[in-house]
């Protein structure tokens, strides 16, 4: 079995990239980039909020130290803390207010802290929750003894630095996100469209060459597109089998119709021959009718098989006793079996009720009994058995005939197929094909067991009617 030719690199066709591939790539880039934009926006805000929180905690920690110094040593202790600051000192300003909002003490470590403190303390007293401090500056206030209030303004140098680093990282993240989105879109879209490209190439190859042996390359994964390719291959295999069967059937029909058509022509020529008497004319017409019936029978059977296989056969189902149907088919061959010296033995269990089209299943049984009698030597035996197994009714036809060779068994169900050992008997080669098609149209199955020189057993299994099958 051949596979579809591949384009260089195994990429999808250009048309797919211009349409579906382009749309997939654009959507992937947009979604990925939107994710990176959201992340790049959230990161600086998160860092800023964290830096603000850390700065405020640092300020409140410094406020506790200044409060302790004020409570224990008064404003002189506060002054000493400013004098003892490390070099360079942190940007911090402290103010103490009395209960009448009169400033008792003010100190700052540098000009920057002094300016910010002056701007923020115009409102007396200072309320940290309502101030508009510049970026990186934090305010805290606490009540101390004697109705006084201690206020502090502190600059957190790490917050602006972290904020700047976060913004730079966001820009880098956006640039990397755009690059990743483009590369990812190309890679993922290429991989996603590869099964579609394989499918398109296989279809184009079949259209161009007519070779139904071409198949889509699959990778055996659970991917939906790979499963689509596998289903497409199954459809191609089925179509290939159907086309092959149609070709073989047409060849066989042409071959098998040649003889009856030649006989029809010979009969017509005999009837048209000058001087032919009435007896010869009647004989020629009788042979013509017989051969016409043979051709019509072949075509009708072929149509029945086709209808059964395609689900177009009309089945008038009803609850029927399988033993009664088998008995009717057996009665049809009592005389024939007696003339051939073949004994028919029956073991028909009553009460096996099946849901079937009575006429069609009688035809199935009749075809199998006809084959069994036809290919059983005089003195042999044909055994017809009706049994049940759970929700299945079973009719079995076993003979002691010539049997079927192993190489012929798989093909006995093919239309117009006749093994070499069956060529000696007159027939169309459609009986078993019809049996299989009709049984499967009923939702059943037919099984074959055979051994050359011992005999064959055909087993038809049919669904029992609802109540009987419980």
Could you write a compact summary of the structure shown?
Helices cover 55% and strands 16% of the residues. The chain has helices spanning 14-83, 111-120, 158-209, 224-272, 278-310, 322-332, 334-340, 358-374, 431-441; strands at 92-97, 103-108, 137-143, 149-155, 317-321, 343-348, 353-357, 381-389, 392-399, 445-451, 455-463.
Give a description of the structure.
This protein has 470 residues and is α+β, with helices and mostly antiparallel strands. It folds into three domains: 1-209, no CATH class; 224-310, Helix Hairpins (Orthogonal Bundle); 317-463, Heat Shock Protein 90 (2-Layer Sandwich). Helices cover 55% and strands 16% of the residues. The chain contains nine helices and eleven strands. Strands 6-8-9-11-10 form a five-stranded mixed sheet, covered by helices on one side. It has a four-stranded antiparallel sheet with strand order 2-1-4-3, sandwiched between helices. Strand 1 (92-97) and strand 2 (103-108) form a beta hairpin. Helix 5 packs parallel to helix 9. The longest helix is centred in the N-terminal third of the chain and has 70 residues, at 14-83. It is rod-shaped. It starts with 13 loop residues before the first helix and ends in a 7-residue tail after the last strand. The relative contact order is 0.08.
């Amino acid at each position: 079995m051949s596979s579809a030719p591949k384009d260089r690199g195994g990429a999808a066709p250009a048309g797919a990239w211009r349409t579906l591939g382009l749309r997939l790539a654009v959507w992937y880039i947009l979604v990925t980039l939107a994710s990176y934009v959201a992340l790049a926006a959230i990161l600086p805000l998160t860092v800023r909020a964290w830096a603000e929180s850390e700065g405020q905690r640092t300020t409140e920690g410094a406020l506790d130290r200044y409060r302790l110094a004020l409570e224990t040593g008064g404003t002189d202790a506060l002054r000493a803390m400013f004098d003892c600051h490390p070099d360079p000192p942190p940007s911090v300003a402290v103010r103490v207010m009395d209960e009448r909002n009169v400033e008792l003490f003010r100190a700052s470590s540098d000009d920057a802290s002094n300016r910010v403190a002056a701007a923020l303390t115009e409102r007396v007293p200072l309320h940290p929750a309502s101030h508009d401090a510049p970026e990186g500056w934090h305010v805290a206030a606490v009540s101390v003894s004697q109705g006084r209030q201690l206020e502090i303004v502190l600059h957190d140098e790490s917050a602006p630095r972290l904020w700047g680093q976060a913004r730079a990282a966001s820009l880098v993240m956006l640039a990397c996100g755009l690059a990743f989105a483009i590369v990812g879109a190309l890679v993922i879209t290429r991989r996603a469209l590869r099964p579609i490209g394989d499918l398109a190439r296989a279809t184009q190859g079949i259209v161009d060459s007519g070779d139904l042996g071409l198949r889509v390359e699959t990778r055996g994964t659970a991917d939906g597109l790979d499963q689509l390719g596998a289903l497409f291959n199954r459809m191609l295999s089925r179509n290939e089998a159907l086309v092959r069967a149609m070709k073989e059937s047409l060849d066989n029909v042409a071959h098998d119709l040649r003889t009856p058509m030649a006989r029809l022509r010979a009969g017509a020529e005999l009837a048209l021959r000058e001087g032919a008497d009435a007896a010869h004319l009647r004989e020629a017409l009788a042979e013509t009718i017989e051969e016409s019936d043979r051709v019509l029978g072949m075509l009708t059977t072929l149509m029945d098989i086709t209808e059964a296989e395609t689900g177009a056969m009309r089945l008038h189902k009803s609850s029927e006793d399988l033993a009664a149907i088998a008995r009717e088919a057996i009665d049809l061959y009592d005389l024939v079996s007696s003339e051939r010296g073949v004994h028919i033995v029956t073991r028909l269990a009553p009460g096996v009720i099946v849901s079937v089209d009575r006429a069609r299943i009688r035809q199935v049984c009749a075809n199998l009994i006809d084959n069994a009698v036809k290919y059983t030597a005089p003195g042999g035996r044909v055994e017809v058995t009706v049994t049940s197994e759970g929700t299945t009714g079973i009719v079995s036809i076993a003979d002691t005939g010539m049997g079927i060779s192993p190489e012929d068994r798989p093909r006995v169900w093919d239309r117009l197929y006749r093994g070499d050992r069956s060529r000696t008997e007159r027939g169309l080669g459609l009986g078993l094909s019809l049996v299989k098609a009709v049984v499967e149209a009923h939702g059943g199955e037919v099984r074959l067991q055979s051994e050359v020189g011992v005999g064959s057993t055909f087993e038809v299994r049919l669904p029992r009617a609802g109540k009987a099958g419980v």
